[in-house]
Predict the structure.
Amino acid sequence: MTSPTAHADGANGQDAVRHVLEILDVTASADDQDLFHGQSVPHPNGRVFGGQVLAQSLLAAGRTVPDGRLPHSMHGYFLRAGAVDQDIDFTVERLRDGRSFTARRTHALQGGAPILSMIASFQESQPGFSYADPMPDAPDPESLASAGEALREVNHPLAEFWASETPFDVRHVEQSIYLRPDQSGRGDQLVWMRARGPVPDDQLLHRALLAYGCDQVMLEPVLRRAGESWASRGLSIASLDHAMWWHRDVHVDEWLLYAQSSPSGQGGRGLGAARIYAQDGTLVASIAQEGMVRVPGDH
């Protein structure tokens, strides 16, 4: 596990991680063992960050699962924008408890209306064959600039939030598209990511935090391939659905490489895909997310 001194973000970064860990710690209802309550990380746009509600929904489901079973897959739909100033209720439905696998459905609700619906499958550790695609070549993350350095140049509340308040250090191998588009026409990108402070050695928590962090970058390949940037005038973007497969144990407070692509964009929607590798080359997860991506002039 990475030591606290290995993180260069200092107290502010570690405070951001601690704050998110507190938010993700959903509270069980005293009256219903399948009902949990949570809050949200403050956000300048007033909307709940999708990765947050994904992580909370997974953690709520995981607390109803027999000991020794960890999530191996998750499929979720973002149904409505959530408001950061309202609590979120998480209702867990126990779909199946088999000899090796457990399935749970979680609905995240505000004002009685679902903002996310998710199904996750959990499995106990079992022997079996093992193989994986190799990690692509990438420079050492410590040789790259942090995304926060570029965003601090921008005088805007959202840029300041992503530069200082997020729990993850993000480092692009290619030119980032925060401020200007990539004109290459390619959707492929490599991104290193690591929590800005230590995380308790709880594998369910690390897998949930991977869901939290990945939502920051999953639709970037769509923008990159379309020749747009996060600063494109009139950009409207929102996650629609999200699928994850955890292949092996993951530690989000160690460097992870996101090998990303966008196979398709059409009809105001784009698909982002990613393979996640530990720094030693181990493939730990695969992710896909489709999002609504609209800019003025789209037909």
Remarks:
- Residues 4-124+147-294 form a domain with the Porin fold (CATH 2.40.160.210).
- The first strand starts at residue 27 and ends at 28.
